[in-house]
Amino acid sequence: MMAVELLLCDIDPTICELAAAAIRHSRLHTMRAQNVPLAAATCCEAVVHAGNSAAVVSSGQDIAFLELFGPSYQHTLQDSVRSLFCDALQPVGTALLVPVDHPTIAFVVHAPCFPQQPKGAYEALSAALKAVHRYNEEHGEMRVRGLACAAMGAYRGCSSQHSASVIEEMVTAYQDYLSTPTCAYSAADSSSGENSSAGTASQARELCS
Length: 209
Fold this sequence. Notes:
Layout: E1 5-9, H1 13-26, E2 31-34, E3 46-49, H2 62-69, H3 72-84, E4 94-99, E5 107-110, H4 120-139, E6 146-149, H5 160-178, H6 181-190, E7 199-200, H7 201-208
Helix pairs in contact: 1-5, 4-5
């Protein structure tokens, strides 16, 4: 199974510069950064919503998802979380694919992430990548080839040190994902030889049974 490509979209130019430098340094040929809103990531089949465990779409980056998918997204997301996690909060370190009605984006991958949580960006992105990869494996084909996300856990006015830490965590999460046996060979192919514990919706179903 081919590795999922990762596109980091953020409206903060400083974050994008940090990400681009980290990507170049790590020689990640299947990850890139663009200084654009997440809504511009129409080349990807899925986008990550680094929301909260209660799946409440209220402020900050959350608003972008309401603008992109409409007010019904809030109800769709909460119904999915309540169904898969037995009416409880979605744990940090898990991710679930939520189908959305959009011309090019098929899914939102909801992965809770809190700005002040240590390794929060790492855990959220790791969970999202694993959930998408598992979805592709279950269907026997690359239905989701590209995954877009903003800087997870970063926020307006946060320090440059915090932003750099978030980017470092996200790059490390993607590197660790590429090193897994099921996609290591494809990552090597795409780069010409260069190269946690996270739950998913399917695991949540087992908890409810």
